[in-house]
Amino acid sequence: MTHNNIVRELKLHSPAGVEPALFTWPNTDQQSTKNDTVFVGGDEIVKTIRLVFEDYPELYQQNLNLSTCDIHSYTNMKELCDKFNKIIDTHIKLNRGTEAFSAHLEQRATAKLFRHILAQVYSRAVTDPDKLRVYEPFSPSVYGETSPDLIDSMLKVINLTEDQTFIDLGSGVGNVVLHVAALANCKHVYGIEY
Asked: Per its UniProt entry, which superkingdom is the organism in (predicted)?
């Protein structure tokens, strides 16, 4: 591996006290565009921090300068991550083990937060979405994704209850299964793909 191919990681600690989210950064200090060959994630880091603060408004601190942060600068993003992680680490140290901390962990994610998480998972798991569309039309191997908006609409219509089970036959990459498991209040969620 040459020096130019080294990828650095930036970490965001979780307010739940679980494993941190990892973001890659190539071995350059400045990225000129989002289309560079290695995923940077500067904008994704800022979006993630904003969503954490929506969920935990008491942790928000203006000195993070989220609106003016240079998302293409490794140095700026590293400083932002370090400040954010310090806030989160303090929150966990002061609150872990309390009823309020536990109660917050029992809450379901908001649809907005879930969609952000799903987009992160999808972008890491499906590195080349165009390859999913290479098939003979109308053959048994046709791949089609169900949009998050359609899944939300389905969940409103079927109104799953705590004693029901949801089964997705032909679950593909599992985005419907993941969506239902995260946002619906049902007993079990299964996906079957042949």
From this structure: Eukaryota
